[in-house]
Amino acid sequence: MAGTSDVATEKCSPAESLGVMKLNDHKAGMQGLDTAKINQIIEEASKGSQFYQHKQKNQERINAKIANLKASCAKLSEEQKKLGRAKMDSLARKLELMRDLSRTIVHVDMDAFYAAVEMRDCPELKTKPMAVGSSAMLTTSNYHARRFGVRAAMPGFIAKKLCPELVIVPTNFPKYTEVSRQVQKVFADYDPEFSAASLDEAYLDITDFLIARKDAGAEMTAAEAVEEMRAKILESTQLTASAGIAPNGMLAKVCSDKNKPNGQFVLENTREAVMEFIKDLPIRKISGIGNVTEQLLGSLGVGTCRDLWDKRELLYLLFSESSYDYFLRVALGIGSFGGDGSERERKSVSCETTFRSTSEHEELCDIIRQLSNDLAQDLERLGLTGRSVTLKYKTDKFDVKTRITQLLDPTRDGAVIAKAALSLLPVGLHLRLLGVRMSQLTSPAVTGNNNSSRKQRTLDELLLAAECPARKKRKLDAQVSNSLTEPDPTTTTPLLFTCPVCHSWRTSDGEVALNSHIDECLNQQVLYPETTSTGCSSSQAKLDRYVIRRAK
DNA sequence: TTGTGCCTC
DNA sequence: CAACGAGGCACAA
């Protein structure tokens, strides 16, 4: 919700690079507005500012990229295209084999969450256009405000020009966190392992819940279950939620937007239903395709998922492996990972702050020291130390740079972090933002050899157990999958596992050998697809991981 | 490894 | 007057 996604920069001719600031109006509650008038006001308020100039420069870079892409495209021979199409068709067959229609995934999204909470707690606001945030930036707006073009990721002072009577309420994170906890309690009734994507959004797999109901003689449809869940959320929080029900997270997310607010949408678990749904879907609706990707693909004539399929040979020939793999998954309506909110290990911790632009060295040093102390506290709270310190800074022209340095030993000492970060600070620049990040994280609480990933994971589990059982479980799952490619050095017994395709037992004789074995199996499966129908869902999961590794 | 860019909420 | 903050991943050199 609190989107930072840049205001949609719709296609604009290179000649007049105006329109860089255009309103992003393809979200819920924004249909049928006088966008011309709104855009004019936004343009007016932005023109000439450093931010605006930065946006323009950025758009020019994108335009150059597009020109490049088009040039490469024009050079392609028919021969190459034919080959590219064949490659993609082969990949598509593999993906098709892994298509899993056995699960019922739900994406739940609270409606205008922060704004809804504030309206609930202050009824006078209900009839007024209001937004949560500050004059510098809004995180959410209510539906009344959206009629004026006021939306998340818009600076409050511009929103005021669009809607002078707009009430701006400051954010109250502790409150939203508390409400979020209540909502998540309801989620847990339907999937104890649900995965929270943010305070107001989560992915649930209700397959087992539905089976349990049926076994108990109280069968209900997915739609009924989700209606009930949303009613429970309303009851316990007085807030409405929208939901999407689909065979995978990627599609469920799109579906939850369909009948927003206070609605839901079911996509049947059949290939036909999925392909019909995906056909005319604008690619921008898919999580992971943002402003830039939309423009790049748009320049190739790709606007919908069907276009993605029709032009698949171009994707293969012009983009990286992980990109065309992802695009093909989208074109086929097959979920990918990460986009479905699966839990991941934390890789970094950071603090940053924006301030009135200055070039005063001592002032900047003070800010870095402050940030370093804040970061040290966060690390302390999380029970982590780290070995890499990154300094991030943004100039008054909005250019962002990062510099990184390695420490000799992992630390969470604020003074040590500050010293490292200060050494990265360039002199004589006008800056408006500074940030300090710690990465290469390790857990220091293990005495002695603190680099053992085995011990680290164990400790993470202990820490996680305190906060959320579902997360703990997911971590353990991740650990199991890791053992597939990273044999635990502390054990001497060789690991055994079954090939997800042929189900034969294999020893862990290395990732390469394993992958080539699976490749062989898959190729055979493509020739004899009928043999795959027996594959159970757990082998599906392993296959998914296999593809992740290959894509990398 | 270092640094940038894109993307998400 | 005035355009966030935190985090992950891909990619290139």
Automatic annotation (TrEMBL):
Belongs to the DNA polymerase type-Y family. InterPro entries: DNA/RNA_pol_sf (IPR043502), DNA_pol_Y-fam_lit_finger_sf (IPR036775), DNA_pol_Y-fam_little_finger (IPR017961), DNA_polymerase-Y (IPR050116), DNApol_IV (IPR022880), PolY_HhH_motif (IPR024728), Rev_trsase/Diguanyl_cyclase (IPR043128), UmuC (IPR001126). It holds the Pfam family IMS_C. It catalyses: DNA(n) + a 2'-deoxyribonucleoside 5'-triphosphate = DNA(n+1) + diphosphate. This is DNA polymerase kappa. HAMAP family: DNApol_IV. GO terms for biological process: DNA repair; DNA replication; error-prone translesion synthesis. Keywords: Coiled coil, DNA damage, DNA repair, DNA replication, DNA-binding, DNA-directed DNA polymerase, Magnesium, Metal-binding, Mutator protein, Nucleotidyltransferase, Nucleus, Transferase, Zinc, Zinc-finger. It is an enzyme of class 2 (transferase). One of its GO terms (cellular component) is nucleus. Its cofactor is Mg(2+). One of its GO terms (molecular function) is damaged DNA binding.
